[in-house]
Design a protein that fits this description.
The protein is an alpha/beta fold and 195 residues long. It contains seven helices and eight strands. A hairpin with a 2-residue loop joins strand 1 and strand 2. Helix 4 packs antiparallel against helix 5, helix 4 crosses helix 6 and helix 6 packs antiparallel against helix 7.
């Protein structure tokens, strides 16, 4: 079977599309935000999903609520009002002093325009291509996913799932890191791991 993995790029390799399990708590949270802000573009994803690609398993996770820049504060205060443990685009200091002590927190951050998203179980969430680019670009928020773990994540993701490289690199361009991510993937591929 031939499968599309990019614009004009196909593979004979076996693989499946990435569809993470959406927990009930995430569906509930998404529904609350959607009811309160019906016209707002929102995406939710959990760093817990990265554990399947990692060797060292972190015990702390972030539930990321990504939304338009102008609405970030409104979403933050809405969730704070609902008694969620939530932080608004935290700095390195805030992460180190307050967030790292929590087992699982919600982080409200900016949704980059034209980010690749998918809908699973009624929840708009990130595609694997977006997640891979995000963890590469934000070394502060995703500190637990850097270094050799970043290579493990990329290697295992490419070996397990079908990844649309064109989509990933287009989003990397939006984040202004296309050349770096392209070089990182090529280097891993030369080392014989990344397909």
């Amino acid at each position: 079977m031939v499968q599309r993995i990019g614009r004009g790029v196909y593979t004979l390799e076996k693989g499946e599309s990435y569809e993470p399990a959406i927990e009930k708590s995430m569906r509930t949270l998404y529904r609350k935000i959607s009811v309160q802000f019906p016209f707002l573009k929102v995406s939710l994803w959990n760093t817990k999903w990265l554990n399947e690609f990692m060797v060292h398993q972190p015990g702390r996770f972030y539930l990321l609520v990504e939304t338009e820049r102008d609405a970030m504060e409104a979403v933050f205060f809405f969730l704070k009002e609902k008694n969620y443990e939530v932080f608004l685009d935290p700095s390195k200091e805030i992460l180190n002093y307050y967030v790292l002590d929590q087992k699982e927190v919600i982080i409200v951050t900016r949704l980059v325009t034209e980010a690749p998203l998918q809908t699973i179980d009624g929840v708009q969430t990130a595609t694997l291509e977006k997640i891979l680019v995000d963890i590469f670009c934000d070394e502060v928020l995703f500190a637990a996913h850097q270094g050799s773990e970043l290579r493990n994540i990329y290697d295992n993701a490419f070996q397990t799932y079908l990844i649309d490289r064109s989509r990933m690199l287009r989003y990397a361009s939006r984040r202004k890191r296309k050349e770096e991510i392209e070089g990182f993937c090529e280097k891993n591929q030369r080392n014989g791991t990344n397909k």
